[in-house]
Amino acid sequence: MILKNKDVLGLEEISAEEILGVLEMASRFRAVFDRPVRSVPIMRGRTVVNFFHEPSTRTRISFELAEKRLSADIINFSSATSSFTKGETLRDTAENLAAMKIDMLIIRHNSAGAAQYLAKVLECSVINAGDGAHEHPTQGLLDIMTMRQRLGDLRGKKVTIIGDISHSRVARSNIWGLHKLGAEVTLCGPPTMVPGGLARLGVNIEYDLKKAVADADVLNVLRIQLERHSSASFPSNREYHRMYGITEDVVRTLKPEAFVMHPGPMNRDVEISSTVADGPRQVILDQVANGVAVRMALIYLLSGGDPGALSPAQE
Amino acid sequence: MEWSWQRIPSEFLVTGVKLCRRGKLGKRKGFLHVRKGRIEGLGVGIPKVEGVPALDGEGLICAPGFVDLHAHFREPGHEEKETIASGCKAAAKGGYTSVVTMPNTDPAIDNSGMIRYLIDRGREAGLCRIHPTGSVSPGLKGQGMTEFGDMVNAGAVGFTDDGMPVENGGLMSNALKYADVLGVPIITHAEDKSIVGKGCMHGGYWSARLGLVGMARAGEDVAVFRDVELARSSGAHLHVAHVSTKGAVEIIRRAKAEGLRITAEATPHHISLDHSRCRDYSPLFKMNPPLREADDVNAVAEGLADGTIDCLATDHAPHTDTEKEYQFDQAPFGVTGLETALGVGITYLVNTGIMDMGKLIQCMSETPARIFNLPAGRLEEGAEADFVLFDPERQWVVAKDDFQSLSHNSSFLGETLTGRVTATFLGGRLTWRDQD
Amino acid sequence: MKFAEKAVIMNASEMNRAIKRMAHEIIEANKGIDNLVLLGVQRRGVPLARMLGEAIKAVEGSEVPQGALDITFYRDDLSTLGPTPQVASTEMPFDVTGKIIILVDDVLYTGRTVRAALDVIMDWGRPEAIRLSVLVDRGHRELPIRPDFVGKNVPTSQREIIKVKVLEFDDKAEVVVGEVAAE
Ligand SMILES: [Zn+2]
Which residue from C minimizes the CA distance to A38? Predict the structure, then answer.
């Protein structure tokens, strides 16, 4: 088996070997995208539930597309509760899902730890599509896949993650995954957004953007959650853009082969200038395509069921 | 003459026990003589009275009934979590005979009628003495003062807006001065909400790693500092609730050295557990103040051992299973404590060598009674016969079905603790006896 | 699981001869090689397709386009998939629409692989016809599938296993029969 656990909750608990296995499988799925028929029938009759407790268009569409391309039956299930109302408890949610006898649960939740909880109480496989500010493993995997397509082996490569690290599950998944593959990670952003506590994970923390990107191979630029920062984490979008925005001027200082990633959706001219977002140094659309492939690979691998050897029924 | 647990006579002896009082655990076995609800006599050796039924307390320690300065008994408003009666049962099981209740019920305890109501409900239950605190501001809204005088006359033993820290420094200053004239302390839940924000656990490595919003230590330190300075200027008695940071311990230590009238308490969970416990997102480790870092835990425990922190108080905060089944960031703050406090104290403080048994028991009985002027905590001739018998070596596993409280949200579920209460007496009456 | 070899049922020269004969049959049935493509099923069908292609070229003098087919994502036994699915890929260097496809595999047994292979091909386009060529037909069909070109019919019991070895993967070309041995 490529994946040891029944669930994919974060890159923290996945080994380097598992990550590489998933990416290998994902590249096979990417090949399917070039055919006239872009789906394969392997998940026929399997039910996958997409439970999105938090609005998300991109991730949900990417998962849905992945499931459709694997011919799974899909149920979308989104709860209307906001972070201000508690709604039903996760246990109630879990019991409902268990009663539906589903094969897999994709969960996006605004509370960190929600995916862990459901994975523990449910028999089916659970894929974390983002839990609070904790982890977003499929985003981490697609980012790593995109980096490897350009850089090959990531050992010794330098990745700088820029933005609101405090609130970013993407950052945490990137840190875990990149570390396992031997890359060197630098976090950069205003000190109000980069928790010093993360230094213990073995990352560099650098508040000066120029220094942080000087010898980077990759810039992973995070989305600034404008709505979260009404109160004083940074003075204004304009100042953020000047101090931490990835502009043409910043790109000019990069190593010639370095490139820029962004998990989307972008706030143009806040964390990234439009010219960079549309320019030759970004790989944003590769990330999107890789996202579908990575999600197909995870869903497929988690559905593989029993380990055991190849059945003697050869052919 | 024999006597049975079923029918406790009005006069009896407990023999073969080690007496623990005034900060010392007796080396030799002794006895306690109870008559008509009061302590008739006590001492080492064999009592020289004849014809009085005796209970053999071989192997047990006999201590003053415990006194908790910080419990939330949810009545009125959230009787599904705890009532006065169920809270008193939990207290008796934990060896407590006097409990100070917090006023953040629904509605809040902000007038003398409510104070009387709580005391009456406590008397009806008859299992422990309830000493209510009143809120500083009406409805805990942080604006204006409640009628302290009227409430003290009704039996209030202090004032606090626990859980809803008094943000307004002017109000806090006035409350301290005003309460001081009435001879009662202001209890501060020291937390600067503008620093702590929406935090749900200690702000540090684990909050950063788990992606949860952190509560900085500074939020507590700053608030303790402010209230200590306010107490300095008025000379009033400030009691700092549930101290959890090394900074707060240091501020209190300095203030005491300067002769200020500051007292403080620490909870069993803050002297034993650190923030890494939150790693599985279990709301059973979510409380306010939060579990801090190992050096905070050590500083608080040392503070308790050296007297900077006067007493162990439970911050018993019952919540239903349902509420603790929400995600970590959505679940309410608080864990229960009355039934595990002794075991946690012995396991984490005595058996680790941080303090001796005599000192721990003093922190759980005599000292809290003294600093709040409660008629309790004395194991001496003529005092009310409020006492506890416990087995200091008994090991037990904290289990969900072993609680008298209506709630089971204990951080220690599944843990093995050493030290368990065998029996609790209130005014010579048995209020708890361990069945196994 | 251990494989205990019992007997060699085709050696290298017998394999070559069978492939040459099948090449002739294919040319004969198709009346030439116009519109013909060879599609090997991963993994051992691929070298066999190459061998067939060489044999056809030896007769007709020109290349037959070749491709490879990976059926992993089309299997009907997802839950019993092996430990690590073989990493192989589909290579389709031509448009299948309108072509006559010779599907090449090593052993024909239950017919399920061929069923999956037909689905893969259909997802790539609409060929004029698909013919099936296998080196060994061992019987025990579970689906109504019949080969058009067979190297050798080998009656087997269900316990037995047929292994086709090719130079690319096994350093040796031969066909052996064996059984799962108790360990
Ligand atoms: Zn409090």
Answer: C123
Torsion of CA C141, C145, C146, C148, to 10 degrees: -140
> How high is the pLDDT of residue A82?
46
Can you tell me which residue has the tokens 């496989």?
A125
Number of domains in chain A: 2
Do A294 and A251 lie in a common domain? Answer: no
What's the distance, CA C101 to chain centroid?
12
Are A314 and C161 a contacting pair at CB < 8 A?
yes
Q: Which domain holds residue A296?
A: 16-135+289-306
Q: Spell out the residues 6+ positions from residue A239 whose beta carbon is closer than 8 angstroms to its own.
A: none
Domains and CATH numbers, chain B: 66-371 (3.20.20.140)
**What's the pLDDT at A307?**
28
pLDDT score of A260 more than 80: yes
Which structure tokens are listed for C89?
Answer: 């890929």
The pLDDT confidence band at residue A228, using thresholds 50, 70 and 90, is low
For residues B289 and B412, give the distance between their C-alpha atoms in angstroms, rounded to a whole number.
17
What domain count does chain C have?
Answer: 1
ipTM for the predicted complex: 0.89
Number of H helices, E strands in chain A: 11, 9
A86, A90, A172 ranked by CB distance to B211: nearest: A172
The per-residue pLDDT for B181 is 96
Share of chain B above pLDDT 70, in %: 98
Is the residue at A315 inside a domain?
no
Cross-chain Cβ contact C113/A42 below 8 Å:
no
Side-chain half-sphere exposure of C175, counting CA atoms within 13 A: 23
Mark the residues whose beta carbon lies below 5 A from ion ligand 1.
Answer: B 162, 189
Residues of the domain holding C9: 2-181
Say if A311 falls within a structural domain: no
Q: Which residues of B are catalytic?
A: 315
- The residue among C10 and A314 whose pLDDT is bigger is C10
Going from the C-alpha of B319 to that of each of B152, B227, B337, B411, C4, the distances in angstroms are 29, 29, 12, 12, 65
User: Is some CB atom of chain A closer than 8 A to the CB atom of C178?
Assistant: no
* CATH code where residue A219 lies: 3.40.50.1370
**To which H or E segment does residue C175 belong?**
strand C174-181
> The domain that contains C94 carries what CATH number?
3.40.50.2020
**A124 and A196 together in one domain:** no
Cβ-in-10-Å burial (0-12, 13-18, 19+) of A121 comes to middle
Per residue in C102-156, pLDDT tens? 999 999 999 999 999 999 999 889 999 999 999 999 999 999 999 999 999 999 9
Whether residue A257 lies inside any domain: the answer is: yes
Q: Based on the domain organization, do A173 and A190 belong to the same domain?
A: yes
Residues A1, C84 contacting (CB under 8 angstroms)? yes
CA B318 to ligand 1 center in whole angstroms: 13
Is the domain of A100 the same as that of A36? Answer: yes
Residues A73 and A119 in one domain: yes
Q: Is A32 on the interface with C (CB under 8 A)?
A: yes
Instruction: Kindly state whether residues A186 and A276 are assigned to the same domain.
Output: yes
Give the range among A21-30, A76-85, B232-241, C23-32 with minimum mean pLDDT: A76-85
- Mean pLDDT throughout B187-207? 95
C89–A32 CB contact, under 8 Å: no
Are residue A125 and residue A181 in the same domain, yes or no? no
Instruction: Compute, in angstroms, the gap from residue C62 CA to the centroid of ligand 1.
Output: 88
A96-103 average pLDDT score: 86
Judge whether B196 and B171 are in contact, CB under 8 Å.
no
**A104 plus A23 within the same structural domain:** yes
Instruction: Judge whether residue A14 has pLDDT over 80.
Output: yes
Q: Would residue A3 count as lying in a domain?
A: no
